[in-house]
Amino acid sequence: MKMHGLGNDFVVIDLRAGGPSGGALPEPALVRRIADRNFGVGFDQLATIQPDADADAKLTFFNADGSISAACGNATRCIARFLLDETGKGSLRLRTDHAVLTAEDAGGGLTRVNMGQPVTDWRSIPLAQNVDTLHLPIEGDPVATGMGNPHMTFFVADQADVADVRAFGARHEVHPLYPERTNVEVAQVVAADTLHLRIWERGVGRTLASGSCSCAAAVAAARRGLTGRRVRVLLAGGELLIDWREDGVWMQGPTAHVADGVLRADWIAAADDRP
């Protein structure tokens, strides 16, 4: 399936019935081939759906470079919408490598997911050394947050302060303070309940939206006292509502199921002979 949440797009492979792979996860090389927007299908992340004994489904997320991510908020919402419609349920429990997440029908075609509690301890984010996660010793004074994946959030007075997010994000993704690399967010506080966000995703690049990045930026803004704990996040692809409650960080927004397709066996088997 091809899906997207606010232009943050995904290929979702349903492995619950097994299929030619016997239900096995795709190898990183195949993930990278599918990710290619010219020679494959194209996506920001790839997600798989597998059966789970104690939850409604098990989800695994891959970045476009073939690496695994423990969390992907918009993909979780897209798959939740698909499974809510398939089962007729009002809520689901979805297992990820980060946690078992609750997803709900929010009405009006919207879907919300509890992304769990944010991580602010340097060891768990993880960072390479013991530093103040609210004020990292990096130019620009960013905040570190874990949402099942690591984040670095910069606050700017105007989005034009960081004109080239691609170069800025690529440079900070591999900062030595983050041994597993990091997602990078550039956030402008528009109002006490509104953030304008631009995103660089680890292992992917510039994206139109990101659920986990929106959650991390909202948590960072609330920790800094710049906003309340319930904020609208304005992204290049649309708007998410983030609500940091006692039971976790809830994310709500629209999803789209674009198309269903089949990867041809001969294409999967073919050697990648591009120069």
Can you characterise this structure?
- The chain is α+β, with helices and mostly antiparallel strands.
- It folds into 2 domains: 129 residues, Diaminopimelate Epimerase, Chain A, domain 1 (Roll); 104 residues, Diaminopimelate Epimerase, Chain A, domain 1 (Roll), CATH 3.10.310.
- It has 5 helices and 17 strands.
Topology of helices and strands:
Elements: E1 2-5, E2 8-14, H1 28-35, E3 45-50, E4 57-63, E5 68-69, H2 73-87, E6 91-95, E7 100-107, E8 110-114, E9 143-146, E10 150-155, H3 165-173, E11 183-191, E12 194-201, E13 205-207, H4 211-224, E14 230-235, E15 238-245, E16 248-253, E17 256-259, H5 265-269
Parallel strand pairs: 2-3, 4-6, 10-11, 12-14
Antiparallel strand pairs: 1-2, 1-17, 3-4, 4-5, 6-7, 7-8, 8-16, 9-10, 11-12, 12-13, 14-15, 15-16
List keywords for this structure.
275 residues; alpha+beta; Diaminopimelate Epimerase, Chain A, domain 1; 2 domains; 17-stranded mixed beta sheet; 5 helices
How many separate domains make up the residues?
Answer: 2
The CATH H-level superfamily of the largest domain is: Diaminopimelate Epimerase, Chain A, domain 1
Based on secondary structure, the structural category is alpha+beta
Number of strands: 17
Q: DSSP strand (E) fraction?
A: 35-45%
State the helicity in percent bands: 10-25%
Which outline best applies? globular
Order of helices and strands: EEHEEEHEEEEEHEEEHEEEEH
* CATH fold-level assignment of the largest domain: Diaminopimelate Epimerase, Chain A, domain 1
Radius of gyration: 18 Å
The CATH architecture of the largest domain comes to Roll
Contiguous uncertain segments of 5+ residues: none
N/C terminus separation = 29 Å
Largest sheet: 17 strands, mixed
**Average residue pLDDT:** 94
Count of helical stretches: 5
